[in-house]
Design goal:
349 residues; mainly beta; 2 domains; 4% helix
Length: 349
Amino acid sequence: MSKLLTLTLIVCAAGAAHADRVITIQPQATGVLCAEHTGRGDRDFYGNGPEVEASATLIVDRDGRRLRARLTIFARETTPDWTTAEGIQDFVVWTAPEGITLAGVEGSNRAYVSYTDVDHHQDVLPGTGPVRQFQLTGDTDGEDLAGRCTNQRTGVQVLFNQVRLRVRDEAAGCPRRLVQAHLRNPGMFCPTGRNNGDGDFGGNGPLLNASAVLDIGPDDRTLEMGLSWGARENPWYGDRVRYYYWGRTYTPPSDTVSGSHGGIEVWTAPEGCRIHEIRSGVRSSGGQTDSDYDINIAPADQAGFVHSFRLMGDRDGADIADPPTACTPGEMHSVGVHAFRPVTVVVGP
């Protein structure tokens, strides 16, 4: 009985180390969100209101590091030509210190206000919940929806009350942080499917394309890449011309080959850490028309994690193994990554 009680106490204590706790913080004021003309009416309310609606919603970033305030504003003239403007923007109002992760907002996280403006001055309206006050400008002494975004234009700014947040203490072995991951090059891969043709591109291209996608592995400890690619012989190159037979036009069949390979591990998180989020672009694509018998380097689009692909298209001999699984990477038609860009990930306990 004594041993069982001791074990129960140990398990409870270990679980409590990861329990959420509540802290009170003071968010900073937001910047000014200016309403932008929607295209309806001109850019001046001319003292006809406007009717103004505004809201503020507190949101915890996915990585648990920042508290954001999402502001919205809508303003509409009360008489024709019904000039209308609206806006939405997020502002960082608090950043968690090292060692804790934000889990959520305690209590209400949103406030809303509406009124009809009757002057050219900034109006201060009391808020509710997390918001202490809305500072609103509807009509101004001039064009309301033109020029730089300042508090002299139609817009809103918000000041906050103190806010209670649920937070989680991070394990000492792996504090939550941004890490630059330098991906491992896994080499080249052979196609998995072959269509029609004779297995030789014959100097007729081929047209090559490749794409890659990056994702967090099922154990949250690795980054995994998926590759897909294809090659198509161009029937209008070289000797692949149309011919006539009994008054009908024929085009010799083009060789086409394609493939995909998923779950390729290219990075592992530090010991004791899990990957929570990928902050860089996770999709890349590139391609070219082959014009020689060598491995070619094809640049990828600039938004993704791949800098360039390695593509083997035509070679001096048969180009496509039959069956495709007999392909020798780098010798037969195959694809790989030539260079990666650094990838930014969020790691933590």
